[in-house]
Amino acid sequence: MRIARASSPRSTARTSPRATSRRACDRSSLVQQQVYALRRNDLDLRVNDILLSQEAQKRSVTTRALLDSEVTSKIPVVTEAQAQDFYNKNKERITGNFPAVKYQLIEFLQQQEQQKLEGTFAQRLRNGASVQTFITPPEQPVFQIATDDQPTKGKADAAVTVVEFTDYQCPVCAQAQPVVERLITEYGDRVRFVVRDFPLAQHKDAEKAAEAAEAAREQGKYWDFTAILFRNQSALGAEQLKQYAGVIGLDRKRFDAALDSGKFAGQVERDVRDGERVGVNATPTFFINGRQVPERTYEALKAAIEAALKSSAQH
Known about the structure:
The protein has helices spanning 17-59, 63-70, 80-90, 98-127, 171-187, 206-218, 222-231, 238-247, 252-261, 265-277, 298-314, and strands at 152-153, 160-166, 191-197, 285-288, 291-293. The chain has 315 residues and is an alpha+beta fold. It has two domains: 17-127, no CATH class; 152-314, Glutaredoxin. The protein has a five-stranded mixed sheet with strand order 1-3-2-4-5.
């Protein structure tokens, strides 16, 4: 079974040597980023294993018993109805009819639930430990990322622009919000913060949640609405999204019509394509003045902002 984003047909066109060279450069840089990401992921897994072992020793249990207690026993059962709902929302990307892939989908969704719990537990262990890693990321290429007509905080002429590609059902995205707010408070008008959508296929309600966020933005309540989404990531069905719209005082008739008609589906898809073009494959992904920041920590983002401010002052 394959679950992947649909892609549009490529057109054939002549390109200049400079454009070809730039694309080759971008591909080389992307390969370097991917190698770094693999090395970083391997290092993160090793750190997680060490922290897991230490926590198990602290509790006088085996690592297996600890995982059973904190992860396995908490995995919710995925129902056939949930698998059907996921299939209906992603059938253009899935090979085979629902009866043929039903059990694979249930297993896939079950694995996603397990991964979310594992990620949350690993983050809890890291929060309680002092972890330092020494792996140098490669030089980041500078990408042109459209920021017009996007959710924005800060002045349009700010020296630094931070672009976040986000998914409202992504637990790590929710964890990143206090970090983002802290940076916005610290840097004020010197930094402009822009949000682009990047709903992941494994998050069954993320795409509709992104459309709902755009419908809320149409009525001037984007930030209020998305704050609710991040606080209620396990409850982002269409009816729940409509209830949240009522909570913050949106015109329900207008909001419901936009959500039901898929009015903003094209806009969300454009964000996804723009993200894929610059190498986004996970959320949250941050770009500061066009350069991707490999890590999502406060320290890494602050360092990148400081570097961008320094570079801006020199030009």
